[in-house]
Design goal:
The complex is a heterodimer of chains A (305) and B (544).
Chain A lengths: L1 H28 L13 H10 L6 H13 L14 H36 L4 H15 L2 H15 L12 H30 L2 H8 L4 H13 L1 H15 L3 H7 L5 H10 L2 H29 L7
Chain B lengths: L4 H18 L7 H8 L1 E5 L15 H10 L4 E3 L6 E3 L2 E6 L5 E6 L13 H12 L17 H5 L11 E5 L2 E5 L7 H4 L10 H6 L22 E7 L3 E6 L13 E5 L4 H9 L14 H7 L4 E14 L9 H9 L3 H9 L4 E2 L21 H10 L11 E6 L2 H18 L3 E6 L1 H9 L5 E7 L6 H4 L16 H12 L3 H18 L2 E12 L4 E2 L15 E2 L5
Parallel strand pairs in B: 1-10, 13-14, 13-15
Antiparallel strand pairs in B: 2-3, 4-5, 5-7, 6-7, 8-9, 9-10, 11-15, 11-16, 12-16, 17-18
Helix pairs in contact in B: 10-12, 16-17
The chains are: A mainly alpha (305), B alpha+beta (544).
């Protein structure tokens, strides 16, 4: 297992290198630059600005410089937010997204697994239909509809929580729910499907025949295999959820990382674009690794190679 | 029975959650608490790029810096005319070229140091130093040799028109008499900065200096920086060292960078903001009907217009351009499309800009438009290739473009193709004249017609139409030299008439500023630059 993990870590290096390279050149292809503004900047000032950030040098030279700094862990200064470095911006926003993501994930897992497992145990019952319809609604109603709806009800209508912001524990409730519902819906469907498949297998019948209690059969035998599809979904989903959602963060005015992914591209904040992309890539790779390890543990037919 | 139990359990849990929240009942809203503590909660658009007054150009930054700094002169809260700031008085030489400012003895930086004439000199030197690459350095170009120094043509700063006579006296020599100089000097590019502080955190003449962080920041305004959380809030607190601190009634201002206008409006309705930065178009009717006392529609120093690329046929023909301009029903656009109290624009400079209102009008005149088009060889639009109308991707621009597309089709028989581009792509197309007709807008930098008219001179970076007219250039240069106010405005009349005759751009409407404001917000007057000097602002909740 140790060899497996070490190997995956080594594989990560060329992958990140390729991602950094592609992103570096791709952002440069977009028309306009970080200092293209509505009010014109005198050309000599424009030149000085570009010179300060090294943008006047040959592109390949800039690439080498960037990669050199990257090796030292320095993602460079933000072109848009001049006082902050990309590292600072990511590390100030990521904890917020991580916190929100954890709440969202908890809600998604509790609601999703609960609904999915229960639905699978009572296949084709009213309960099954209701929870699966709700899940379908959860998948279909986009967050930019659900979020404002929740605000309208609980923020503006009942006045229990603020409409936006990120100060008190109350401010955490609605964004977490909005984020969680969406993933809960997916998880519910995956969990139901996985469980149904497992519950029909022979080893479950054997366990039952041997007199194992219903609870033991579900918790000990079925759940382990039934959750496999959920686990493989969770790898990229967790990376997604803890790096923040542009929509949820914009609707609820949450100072998280999700917004940077989008605004950095709009601002042509080159370093910020590469920084956020790399950060996201590292998380995805790491979480996929975790998923692989968990899958081997859940499914004895798999082996580390 | 057993079958239903899991569902019952879930329902129970949900009920418990709902009830436990409901138990909290309706709370005191954030503005109610803030009212008591004299804390202004303000929606502020986007996250500021920086808080260094020389390195920013945007409105959100301007709004924050107004609380943190004070220039030689500052603005009257009602009509923004220049009033004493750090300078308690000033003398102007008879030719209008030399201003001598007398500084207050009690003006202090937030670290307790006195604000001296030397501070201003050193600040302006920093502003103009080429290596800093300050985008707004041209705001100083009215000063003698400032432009030459900024472009590196002279390197001796003592030749630039700033002179320290003593600690409390600063003399500024201008290139020409500039009637709007004092208005200009209220702009953020004229704020002083504290050089010793900036030096502590790096080279003051280069970007990337991190002196504007809370704890490091030193300013001379009525408030000082206390907290800065990116994309969340910027908090400024009343400064104990400000010379006019007794007048300041607010204890804190919270600037919230809420980018989405819908989110901002919801925050306002939930009682989290005293004043918004803007108001979504879709909410306008709701406020008109239900909260007319909270809705504020105020004039704003800005114009919305269409640029025309005059370098390519068929729009290099003035008659075609005029035909387009004469066949837009502007009243219909402001009444049915924008609906935010905007004024139809029959000329470019917003009416009443420093006492100037253009007399030449570009009214709707379909008969004349048709005649001109026929004269240009395209009777009823026949033979005219489709025209591309470019706008940056935004719902409101699209609706206006579609309306105008229809007007041109209906009245002139011209086919118009709409093209939308993402913001930076659009800016790039404009700059490289890679368009035919393009949406554009201009917000005045200072209260003078010059800020709208000098941009159309040959080679000006903001003239993105390819239009060039020596007579126009001459008139704008002449206006810059004239001291007599009335005479000067007459020259602007001539220039704008020429501009409207040549139509390198088609004015459409004048902006208004639409905001939602709490009734307890006092000392907040409608001003055309959306400036509200915070030392006069206070909160007075209704006590009933």
């Amino acid at each position: 297992m140790f060899r497996f993990i070490a190997k995956r870590f080594l594989e990560m290096i060329p992958v990140l290198f390729i991602i950094a390279t592609i992103t570096f050149f791709m952002v440069r292809l977009a028309p306009g630059g970080p200092f293209t503004t509505e009010k014109s900047i005198p050309p000599e000032i424009q030149k000085k600005l570009e010179a300060f950030y090294g943008l006047n040098r040959p592109l390949f030279q800039q690439y080498l410089d960037y990669m050199g700094n990257l090796l030292k862990g320095d993602l460079g200064p933000s072109f848009k937010y001049a006082t902050w470095s990309v590292n600072e911006l990511i590390w100030s926003a990521f904890p917020v997204s991580l916190e929100l993501g954890c709440y969202g994930l908890a809600i998604a897992l509790i609601l999703g697994l609960g609904a999915g497992v229960v639905a699978s145990l009572r296949q084709n019952s009213a309960l099954d239909h209701i929870s699966m319809s709700l899940a379908m609604v959860g998948i279909c109603v986009p967050t930019f509809v659900l979020g404002p709806l929740l605000i309208l009800m609980f923020g503006l209508g009942l006045g229990w929580v603020n409409a936006s912001g990120w100060d008190s524990w109350r401010d955490r409730i609605l964004p977490s729910l909005t984020l969680g519902f969406f993933y809960a819906a997916y998880i519910a469907r995956l969990a139901r499907g996985g469980m149904l498949e497992i519950l029909n297998q022979e080893f479950i019948r054997t366990a039952r025949a041997k007199g194992a209690s219903r609870q033991r059969v579900i918790l000990k035998h079925a759940l382990k295999g039934g959750l496999l599809p959920v686990v493989s979904f969770l790898g990229p989903a967790v990376a997604d959820i803890i790096t923040g959602s542009f929509v949820v963060e914009t609707i609820f005015q949450v100072p998280g990382l999700g917004r940077f992914f989008v605004t950095a591209a709009f601002n042509r904040d080159y370093t910020m674009v590469i920084g956020t992309v790399l950060f996201y890539a590292v998380l995805i790779i790491l979480l996929n690794l975790v998923v692989d390890v968990v899958q081997v543990w859940l499914n004895p037919r798999l082996r580390f190679e | 029975m057993r079958r239903n139990r899991p569902a019952a359990r879930w329902c129970g849990l949900f009920l418990f959650l709902v009830l436990s929240l409901a138990g909290c009942s309706r709370r005191e809203t954030r503005v109610e608490i803030a009212d008591r503590e004299q804390v202004l909660l303000k929606g502020n658009g986007t996250e500021p790029q920086e808080l260094d007054p020389y390195l920013v150009t945007g409105v959100p930054e301007d709004q924050i810096l107004l609380s943190l700094f004070e220039g030689l002169v500052t603005e009257d809260p009602v009509d923004l005319h220049p009033v004493p700031g750090v300078a308690k008085s000033w003398d102007v030489s008879s030719d209008g070229k030399i201003y001598t400012f007398h500084l207050r003895e009690n003006a202090k930086w937030s670290n307790g140091d006195p604000v001296t004439a030397r501070d201003f000199l050193e600040s302006y030197k920093r502003m103009l130093t080429p290596s800093l690459a300050a985008e707004y350095s041209y705001m100083h170009f009215v000063v003698k040799n400032a432009e030459a120094y900024n472009q590196g043509k002279i390197t001796d700063f003592s030749q630039v028109g700033y002179q320290v006579l003593d600690d409390q006296t600063l003399q500024i020599t201008l290139e020409n008499s500039t009637p709007y100089f004092l208005s200009l000097a209220t702009h953020m590019s004229w704020y002083p900065v504290h050089l010793p502080t900036i030096r502590k955190y790096g080279d003051p003449y280069l970007r990337g200096n991190k002196w504007t962080r809370p704890g490091r920041f030193v300013g001379n305004g009525a408030f000082l920086l206390s907290k800065w959380r990116v994309n969340d809030v910027i908090v400024v607190k009343k400064s104990p060292s400000y010379w006019d601190r007794d007048r300041v009634r607010l204890n804190e201002i919270h600037f919230m960078p809420i980018e989405s206008d819908d989110t901002e409006e919801r925050a306002f309705r939930a009682g989290q903001l005293h004043v918004t930065q803007t108001l979504p178009l879709t909410k306008m009717d709701l406020y008109r009907k239900n909260y007319p006392n909270l809705l504020h529609i105020d004039p704003f120093l800005g114009s919305y217009f269409y640029d025309i690329n005059v370098t390519k046929p068929p729009l290099n023909d003035k008659r075609v351009r005029r035909a387009l301009a004469l066949s837009i029903d502007r009243e219909s656009i402001v009444n049915n499309v924008t609906r935010g109290g905007q004024l139809p624009a029959f000329y470019l400079t917003p009416p009443g800009t420093a006492g100037y209102t253009c007399r030449t009008l570009l009214h709707e005149d379909l008969a004349e438009a048709k005649r001109l088009l026929a004269e240009a060889g395209y009777p009823d639009g026949k033979g005219l290739p489709p025209i591309e109308l470019l706008y940056n991707t935004l719902e409101s621009h699209r609706i206006i473009a579609e309306t105008i597309q229809q007007m041109w089709k209906k009245s002139l028989g011209i086919d118009v193709q709409l093209v939308n581009q993402e913001w930076k792509v659009y800016l790039d197309s404009q700059r490289t004249l890679n368009y035919q007709v393009s949406r554009a807008s201009w917000i005045g930098d200072y209260n003078d017609p010059n800020t709208f008219l000098d941009m159309w001179t040959t080679g000006n970076g903001n003239n993105r139409t390819g239009w060039s007219n020596p007579e126009y250039d001459r008139l704008i240069a002449e206006a810059a030299r004239i001291t007599d106010l009335k005479q000067r405005l007459e020259v602007f009349q001539k220039a704008e008439a020429l501009l409207l005759d040549e139509v390198p751009m088609i004015p459409i409407y004048f902006y208004t500023l639409t905001t939602a404001q709490r009734p307890e917000l006092k000392g907040w007057y409608p001003t055309i630059l959306d400036h509200h000097p915070y030392k006069y602002v206070y909160l007075e909740p209704n006590k009933n």
